[in-house]
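User: Show me a protein chain along with its predicted structure.
Assistant: Here is one chain, sequence first, then structure tokens.
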Amino acid sequence: MELFADRAQAGALLAERLRGARDPVVLALPRGGVAVAAPIARRLGVPLEVLVTRKIGYPPAPELGVGAVAEGGEPVFDHVLLRRLGMTPESVADVVRRERRELARRVRVYRGDRPPPSLEGREVIVVDDGLATGGTARAALRAVAAAKPAKVTLAVPVGSPDTVASLRDEADEVVVLRTPADFHAVGQWYEDFEQLTDDDVLRLLEEGSAGDDGPDEFA
């Protein structure tokens, strides 16, 4: 299966699948999702915003996510995995507090004094660069749903087939370009999967303001 050149190319391809959206709010999950969402926002002619999420890691092995939290939402846990590890949500309370602090820091960095966008009654497109376990996407979708939008679309370039299927109940629509059977990690489906910094996110958000000028022409 052909790889995406980078997140920007993947976002441009996704944008073509989202042309029917009516004045949506585009919410990117930092950091990687912002690079995918930037061309979507430009081509749809709408501003680019962020919805900050943080993984809740298993303390002995933090790269293993047992849950996630999104701004404006409550922690969402993988209870099956927690039971398998002999843990409960209370067991990771310190991790949750630490990730909430980091989440608040990133909100301040990315949004500054701007209030979060109003989602009630709006069409919302939540964008990430891919779905592995889907923990952060699930937390984001539940936080968005609590704001009573008119429609929620999850848009990603690539994802694990099982994860994509499990998230269809969390969104009104899931738009995904590729669900490879041999999926192991998001990065394997990009030629360039360089990690983004906070400065990269801020630059992309500033460039995303070009969305206010109207949609680009599609090729």
